[in-house]
Specification:
The protein is α+β, with helices and mostly antiparallel strands. The chain folds into four domains: about 200 residues, 2-Layer Sandwich (D-amino Acid Aminotransferase, Chain A, domain 1); about 100 residues, OB fold (Dihydrolipoamide Acetyltransferase, E2P) (Beta Barrel), CATH 2.40.50.140; about 90 residues, no CATH class; about 130 residues, DNA primase, PRIM domain (Alpha-Beta Complex), CATH 3.90.920.10. It contains 15 helices and 35 strands. The strands form nine sheets. Strands 13, 14, 15, 16, 17, 18 and 21 form a seven-stranded antiparallel beta sheet that branches. Helix 8 runs parallel beside helix 9. The model has no long low-confidence stretch (mean pLDDT about 95).
């Protein structure tokens, strides 16, 4: 296989294009009339490990028959977002031997084969064609297979698009905390190995500052520790990257400062270093490498908090303040915890705040302090937090990671958005708000959501569900632009609400006055209206438990569900482990069939 060479700098010029580098298994997909196989870079057959990819290709048999034999070059990945892969889950998949385990994993977190090159078509080799021509052939092949030139959550074959603007693709990659990019020379032939100057990989390194504490002679690894609550905590180890003067220096330090115990040489906590890594998983840094000594740094400055911030990769444009301030006293959750949550969840959250007017609840002193609502850009706010003008004011808008982090840095805890895009007067989604009498009645909201899902299925609608982060639940139906007016969505939500109320008058009500609800769940269909707002997916809440309005998979909506289980402290890990239940929201919007709804409305 042709492999990219590592590079610290991005080559620039018209002769280059750039692609996202995914953290996965490099493989070739061989496809002929008799078989479909996945072969790794090392020649290992991965076909049986990823049956979902093979099954998807088999569905394309009729469309591909005239193009066979065919060979794609690409990456097997399990995606967190369309720009960030989950290598930890993929590695686990690669270890599975049991067909039952593989099938279960393929259902829970299906893999993609992301194609970035085509090496053979109709049995003819393309390796001597320039890369740009091969890329065009790949596009033609995807079109023949009726596949979009993108990555789809619904399709197991994805297309890795190229970009001529290195800075833009790097910014997207950085925002999504991705692995890096690959620069490819447009006129390059396909050359096996790394004996070329045509492909370069530039990795999105996180720089971790820590203290050298020991050297393990049996394997050549150095341990790195940082301070956490006044004691040293080992956070990782490394062995690569030390050479030349740095290697000489460290040998001298081991000789003069080290204390030997068995095969380990211990060092006093005095020598600080920077190491590169790609993240942290399974208790270890990913691909750690020595970068430099930090003789300018006091050991006490190397802390767990600094490691967490470095792994989060905050935007350089924002100076974070007062991170130690307690925002949620009951759990001891700090403003720093909020900032790290917002930064890491932002790739999943921004799609639901982008191009929408925003109202935030700011709590500068935490949830027990004074709070206020804000929906306009303050005088001191940067342009990237502003949207369109409204009279003499500018609406708040969180269309980027920077905007969300800036708002959180200024004490914004809750993020509320309307049901229409900025400047528009018609909705782009339908939302049912299910509001039980108290958090103790959350099981009634669960029951209402499951009944609602059954009804929406009968209307052939794709629906999504989340906790409100407080005591209720919300069910979403994405709809295409200009497909329904607020008058139509109001008629639909009212009809559904009345039907649920009629079926279960002892459990549900549409009564607006709280005193008349008699502890029944309120189906708030009136809230779905122009300029009215609802808590955004993944927004934290101003609750004592630091809860989050959390998207769910429908199979999770059971009697065991509790809204306090999802907090600022665990939702990022949940999304990385299980995937985002709202990941296919935009694709569902594009393919949403409203014909049955329209027919229903015409008859009522």
């Amino acid at each position: 296989m042709m492999q990219p060479k590592p590079s610290e700098a991005i080559p620039k010029g018209k002769e280059w294009c750039y692609e996202v580098k995914y953290d996965g298994f490099r493989a070739r997909l061989h496809w002929d009339q008799h078989s479909i196989t996945l072969i790794s870079r090392n020649g290992k057959d991965l076909t049986n490990n990823f049956p979902e990819i093979i099954a998807y290709c088999q569905q394309k048999s009729d469309e591909v028959i005239e193009l066979l034999p065919l060979q794609f070059d690409g990456e097997i990945v399990i995606l967190n977002t369309k720009f960030q892969a989950n290598f930890e889950h993929l590695q686990q998949r690669g270890r599975f031997k049991s067909a039952e385990k593989i099938t279960r994993a393929a259902t829970r977190r299906p893999a993609h084969f992301l194609c970035f090159d085509i090496l053979q078509i109709m049995g003819k080799s393309l390796v001597n064609l320039p890369y740009q021509q091969r890329k065009n052939k790949l596009k033609e092949t995807f079109c023949a297979l009726h596949l979009d030139l993108t990555i789809s959550w619904y399709h197991r074959l994805g297309f890795v698009a190229e970009d001529s603007k290195a800075d833009e693709i790097w910014q997207t990659l950085f925002d999504h905390l991705g692995e890096g990019i690959v620069a490819k020379r447009l006129d390059s032939n396909y050359t096996e190995g790394k004996t070329h100057g045509d492909w370069f990989k530039i990795k999105n390194w996180r720089v971790i500052s820590g203290i050298l504490t020991s050297y393990h002679q049996e394997n050549g690894y150095f341990s790195v520790a940082v301070y956490g609550k006044d004691k040293l905590v080992t956070v990782g180890k490394f062995k690569h990257g030390l050479e030349g003067e740095a290697l000489t220096t460290i040998k001298q330090l081991l000789h003069t400062k080290g204390i030997k115990s068995g095969n380990t040489i211990h060092l006093p906590p005095a020598i600080c270093v920077d190491i590169h890594c790609l993240g942290f998983s399974e208790g270890e840094f990913r691909e750690p490498q020595f970068k430099q000594f930090r003789f300018d740094l006091e050991p006490e400055a190397c802390t767990v908090k600094l490691v967490k911030d470095s792994l989060s990769q905050f935007p350089a444009t924002i100076t974070l303040t007062k991170q130690a301030k307690i925002f949620w006293p009951e759990s001891g959750t700090t403003k720093g915890d909020l900032l790290r949550y917002i930064r890491q969840i932002a790739p999943y959250m921004v799609p639901f705040t982008r191009n929408k007017a925003l109202t935030v609840i700011r709590c500068p002193d935490g949830v027990n302090g004074e709070f206020f609502y804000q929906k306009h850009l303050p005088d001191y706010g940067p342009d990237y937090v502003g949207g369109m003008k409204q009279g003499e004011e500018i609406l708040l808008h969180a269309g980027s990671i920077d905007a969300l982090v800036w708002l959180a840095n200024h004490g914004a805890i809750e993020y509320h958005v309307p049901f229409q895009l900025m400047g528009e007067s018609i909705p782009n989604e339908i939302v049912f708000d299910l509001d039980p009498a108290s958090i103790d009645d959350f099981d009634v909201a669960v029951y209402a959501a499951t009944l609602l899902k059954t009804m929406l299925d009968q209307f052939k609608l794709k629906s999504f569900v989340k906790t409100s982060g407080n005591k209720g639940m919300q069910v979403y139906v994405p709809i295409q632009k200009q497909s329904m007016t607020y008058e139509e969505t109001a008629a639909f939500t009212q009809s559904i609400a009345f039907l649920l109320e009629k079926q279960h008058p002892d459990l549900f009500t549409t009564e607006r006055l709280k005193k008349n609800r008699n502890n029944r769940l309120y189906i708030d269909y009136i809230q779905h209206g122009k300029d009215k707002t609802l808590i955004a997916p993944y927004s934290p809440r101003k609750t004592k438990e630091a809860t989050v309005s959390t998207p769910l998979f429908w199979e999770e909506v059971t009697s065991n569900l509790t809204p306090t289980a999802f907090t600022v402290n665990n939702v990022v890990a949940r999304v990385k482990d299980q995937g985002c239940p709202f990941s296919s929201y935009e694709e569902a919007r594009d393919t949403q069939d409203l014909s049955v709804v329209k027919q229903f409305l015409s008859e009522t």
